[in-house]
């Protein structure tokens, strides 16, 4: 990469942020008008944004661009309808980044809320007897609205709490258990949350699938995911010498501390469900519309709050400050997510274009998957996604490649819900075992150990039990 002046690089980063924000607006316009060209233009804009971000992205991430370019050339050389495949890939990548941008806005608002920070601290300082359940439950609720930010927030607070232990061995054990509780609570959201990429992609790729149909059994998958984690922690909890019980973190203050999180959870999840039911708009479109609106209103309330008690609220100044904050989000915050934006967009692009090229080859030369018992296919889906994660494949990429190659649920004679459960279950397991996923990397960093140890040692028993459990649950819903 040629040297670029700092000022010019900063301008490129800001331009990239503007293009990412524009992607969300174009995707919303697409949901309102039904014109695919809008979101395809958004996808092209993201490609330009990635080029703007490229001076600040590691070379290992830029390999995704090379793979995408190779697939593009392959499609041009081998398919007369290559443009259809490319436009579909741009469409899918644009939608993924639009959803990511909406969730990033909500995360920015939440991370600036004293009430949310206080809630996280309250959970991290619970007594040992209920700390795992508190952090697992808290990690789940935080994960529903903050995504990976829940691990950063709760994990940092947990590390600070564990560091206060007098015995280093106890501190190490406590930190590991706390981090696993947070990680598994977060990963359980991938089983069912309508704003998680796992559910968004699954309901997009599986013919006939809807979130409303899959919500309850998928929520049960999340409960199973956390319950197995709690059971393993209880059974294999290290026995340490008796010690004075830790003081309770504000006894009786559960509802007081958790209320803001419950309100946010209800506003986002119930709002998405109600609007989806009333308008008939797909869940992904509702998420792109309602989540940024909630973030804007929340930030407006934050800016309208008086700096000192007794001061009057100035709505006009609050709106001005909100405008500046949105500007900072676009030109500063969004470029800070450049590595994630490249990974998510290119995973969706490569998965979509790759399946476009592979499906005809599978039909001509591959085995007849329709003759395989559907239970075996569901079990294989749950297994393949986390196994592909061990090879460095983001679940967004592996799922985008895998699902189009499989017969539709109608052909297999199963409910679309069963396939959705298999996909989201495997995706959740990938989120706790793959050393290349953000959640495992974050836990390794906070726990001062390698990501591979977190995925293959800390979470091995958890995954080994859940693979058959989640597969059987998917089969039972077929």
From TrEMBL:
The keyword Membrane applies. Keywords: Membrane, Transmembrane, Transmembrane helix. The chain crosses the membrane at residues 12-30, 37-57, 63-82, 94-117, 137-160, 181-202, 214-236, 257-277, 283-301, 341-359, 371-389, 456-476. It comes from the Bacteria. The keyword Transmembrane applies. This is H+/citrate symporter.
